UniProtKB/TrEMBL annotation:
SUPFAM superfamilies hit by this protein: PIN domain-like
Stated name of the protein: PIN domain-containing protein
PANTHER family associated with the record: RRNA-PROCESSING PROTEIN UTP23 HOMOLOG
PIN domain boundaries: 13-118
Amino acid sequence: MKTKLAASKKVGLKVIFDANFFFIPIQFNLDIFEELEKLLKKRYEPILLSSTKKELQGLAESTSTKTSKQALNAINLVEKCSFVPVEKSSTETYDDVIVRVATESKIPVATNDRNLRKRLRQSGVAVIYMRQKQRLVLDGSV
């Protein structure tokens, strides 16, 4: 089930986005795309895995009005990302897919999920996350 992220015509580094990362602009009024470019000091290509898109769609159909509304706003942001189809086995969680793809491809991940960040760092994958509700930070090297 190895996933290859094809070389793209866009210049720069690839960064896989976790679903919760798309909630930052809604919750904290921070432009994640602009802030990420400032942090990395270079152009980058935001990557949306098919499993993450499915997760966002599931959240949009949530019974919680707040979660549903935030997920619908997040889905609008995914238009700025390059879509990468990946396979998800029935035993894998959405986070498992991100860890697998990021580890195989050596691509940093943007997430605010503390447990996912820990798993990624243990696998040697760089992680970008929000700190103090106002800025993005990089843990690891790209």
